[in-house]
Amino acid sequence: MSQFNLDNDDYRDHLYNQTKDGKRLWIFPGRIIGQFYRLRTYFSYLLLTLLFGLPWLEYKGNPIFLFNVLERKFIFWGVPFFPQDFHLVALGLVAFLLFVSLFTVLFGRIWCGWACPQTIFMEMLFRKIEYWIEGDDKAQRKLAESPWNTEKMVKRGTKHSLFVLLSFAIANTFLMYLISKKEWLKLVTEPPLDHVVGLIAILIFTAVFYFVFARFREMVCMVICPYGRLQGVLLDNNSILVQYDHKRGEPRGKGEDKGACIDCHWCVRVCPTGIDIRNGSNQLECIGCTACIDACDMVMEKTHQPTGLIRYDSLNGVNSGQKLKFTWRIGAYSTVLALIVAGLTYMLVTRTHFETTLLRTPGMIFQVDEKTQEVSNLYQIKLLNKSMDKQEFSVKAPDAFNIVWVGKPLLQIEAGKLAKSEFFLRVKIGKWKSGEKVPVTITEKGGDEETIKTSFIQPE
């Protein structure tokens, strides 16, 4: 681990896990088990259970969640969404971004420390394997600096083999979210040559996950993830973050004339991104994982001092004891978010189980039957069944018109399928006002209906 000089602020010039020359310093975070670590562990196990379990659950023969981008099929909590619902997806994304902004203003990167998949996988799965095989941070550092011998090869080989297997399991789980459990079972049970693309996808996902959690690690949070960059824009002195109480802790050291911080460096030792939280809460590398809180509380208990030298608090809370303050930014974000969520909820509740596209066939003029004195127009209809069940439909026009189907009429449509057909609208000459649009009503057996007004041309 790098050595930190706490008497200067050169930490502002480069990442904690890099030298000034840009060379990476490998981080060996110490293991600490405290109150927050236990809570994070229980919460992460709940999230992991949901992550690995949800792809196996089905509702009406379909997955609970599906994000099939290539085939443009999406299911969220059992409700299917299609490209025609893009406006709902866009509004949902706007609401999500506003929620993230509001949440960040209030609580900083608490998401990163408690619920982010990168942190959950790294700290609760891969890191535990590393501790189990190689030992704590001191043992890991000693092993890394030792020459290649039998012990090192066995430990490293075992660790990376388990890393690959775990990455393989994660890759298969994510693939199930993309293609569904049924398609995934076909992929793993049928001959490999029948699913070459799927197998290549699994191998690529496995390689990516292995690289991220075996090598890249904290660099994802410090360099790639855009969420950390939002801190510099969204955080203020009222945001609840992992804070070091400098008023109580300074000056550091041991002795009656010193503050509560004994300068033991335990907070630095256990940090998964290698930062020193005492340099301030505005460090973008901090993911709010609470490891430093647990470590500091342990030291405070051993030195018979009150805990909370490092705690969840705002900068104003540390400086003046001020509690969370309702600001105009919080009010603005909350108001806009509430309006968007209300609008999105209304659109979801009133969303019909089908969607219709009705167009008069382009390039076709009207047809006149001299014998029956009828004029007709040809129409193309596309009907998307957006429900999870087979649906029955009926198409009706005003009483003056007759509907004559060309080919198979749209009476039944399978769940999630798009059906196309054509029909003529026929009316006696003079029975319909020239230039007036014709209302065509499509009714679903369950009660939903949609009326589309379409043009109808005829002789003057």
Automatic annotation (TrEMBL):
Gene3D superfamilies: 3.30.70.20, Immunoglobulins. Residues 249-280 form the 4Fe-4S ferredoxin-type domain. GO terms for cellular component: plasma membrane. GO terms for molecular function: 4 iron, 4 sulfur cluster binding; metal ion binding. Pfam families: Fer4_18, Fer4_5, FixG_C. The chain crosses the membrane at residues 39-57, 86-112, 162-180, 192-213, 330-349. The keyword Iron-sulfur applies. Coiled coil: none annotated. PROSITE patterns: 4FE4S_FER_1, 4FE4S_FER_2. It comes from the Bacteria. Keywords: 4Fe-4S, Electron transport, Iron, Iron-sulfur, Membrane, Metal-binding, Transmembrane, Transmembrane helix, Transport. InterPro entries: 4Fe4S_Fe-S-bd, 4Fe4S_Fe_S_CS, Cyt_c_oxidase_cbb3_FixG, Electron_Trans/Redox, FixG_C, Ig-like_fold. This is Cytochrome c oxidase accessory protein CcoG. It comes from Aquirufa antheringensis. The lineage of its organism: Bacteria, Pseudomonadati, Bacteroidota, Cytophagia, Cytophagales.
